[in-house]
Amino acid sequence: MMKFPTTAASLTLTQCINLIVQKYTSSGDVISVTSEKNGYDFPSVRMDYSENSLIEFLLDYCDATPKFYIFDEMNIEQTLEQLVFYRNYFNPRSRYLFIGTNFSTDQVEIVAFRNIYNAIFIDEISSEILTYFPFKEKKLRKIDNSLQVVGKCRSDNASLENFFPQKMIVDFKKSEIFIVFNNAFIYTECNTCSHNKSGIEIEIFQLLTKHLHIKTNFIPVEKVLKKQFTGTFDIEIGALLMYPHSTCEQSVGYLTENMGFFVPATQRYSKWRLILSVFSIESWCAFILSLVILALIWAFIYLTLQKTNGEGLFLSTKNFIIVFFEGRNKRCRICFWSQECLYFSVIFLSFAMYSFFNTRLTFLLYGIVFGKGIESPKDIAANELLIGSPTPTLESFLRRIPGLETYPEKFYYPCSDLEPCLNFLRHEKNLALFYPVRLIRNLPTEFHISEEGIILMRQLKETYLTLHTVAYFQKGHPLFHLFNKHLRYLIESGIVAKIVEEYNSPLLEESELELTQKLNYQHMLAPLCLLIVGSCSSLIIFLLEVKTRIV
């Protein structure tokens, strides 16, 4: 413990701070201050957030966060925001000392919002030492931000005791927390599972909070992004989390996921080969049958026109255009409205098929064939491919994989949103996309996966391609250690493993990667219905016209 000189007389403000720091720090602790000329007797680091000062701080204290923060500026909100910005050096569990005058409850609320509970406030005029007790009602959402006098700067060392009293309550029963989750099939949503299971991670935390007698509200991350949920959340679970994880605290790893990646080759499937391969047998049968029906209707109309002295003008190459544009021809003795109806049905069918191919098949024309010879992360580095990862956490995880430790940062491609990365893959073909295996198996079906891709996925199931799934708490959250303790118990007792086994999903088994789902008749239902309805209506109108002999 550091030793500072004391006097028997009444202490000045600086001497009082020296004694407080002496009481609550040890030798080697990093102490952060905001004042340039403070006259303190202890070594400290001034965090003025300028570039030179920050670089000096990083060089000297890169492996340690301050144990004691001293703020002698009244703008507490701005100072804390600057501190949180350098999130690796912000530790809300450290001790904080604020120096000023006339502290308000709003300032205390700002401190409590950052989960800073070990804080004292010294009034420069009265020399009173104040603090607050946030959990008087034992409710997480009901913070008491009123200040209480706990001492005064004097020479009596006994008065310096208990300035940082134990403020964390052990019993949070009947408290209410908000857990934000990102939908990930079978982990945070599982509507297709038996017994309407809610997802592995949600089930784990439902069990955990029920044991702690805490009310839990699960909030989809979409509501946060759309600002439909404006409150503060406590925990974040699920894959591909949205916030930078350096602002949070990670729980123990309660799930383990196999990581995999896929790399497309430069080649593409030919247009017609891909179209022929993606249609199922039933869709081909339905399409051919509809064409046969259309051909029979045309043949029937053609033969009927011949019998009614229409001279077969309906299918005449020479007069077809004249009839189509002028509606009637001098050589045509009979002109039926059913002809125009049939023309328009064919035109609308063409537009429908064009729309269908644009919405359903355009992306299928760029089938991905997985690259051969890319069988490990070392091969990715050797070929200087771009690397795509969905979150900063996964990116930092990839940098620890053998073969990628020294891979230049310029080769990392941001993939926070999966769709742009898949579009990039479709055209550029030089991106290795890393994802948990369960998500790769559930990729959108518009990307045709070849047999080479299945083989490649088998080769990449190695031990170092493993990612621990964790829950993220806001830094300094009072429930962090309590949840960690009970979560570790659920893991060690085998309860988590039992929950995972109960799902029995093929996504958790060693199943092969499925090929693209073939298109069936339901995908073609709209254009086929238009074709059949247009043809049948033409035939009905034609029969009525022939029967009534409309000339």
From TrEMBL:
SUPFAM superfamilies: Periplasmic binding protein-like II
Localisation per UniProt entry: Cell membrane
InterPro entries: Insect_Ionotropic_Sensory_Rcpt
Keyword annotations from UniProtKB, A to Z: Cell membrane, Glycoprotein, Membrane, Receptor, Transmembrane, Transmembrane helix
Membrane-topology descriptor: Multi-pass membrane protein
Segments passing through the bilayer: 286-305, 334-357, 524-544
One GO CC term on file: plasma membrane
UniProt feature coiled coil, ranges: none
Domain of life: Eukaryota
Protein name, as recorded: Ionotropic receptor
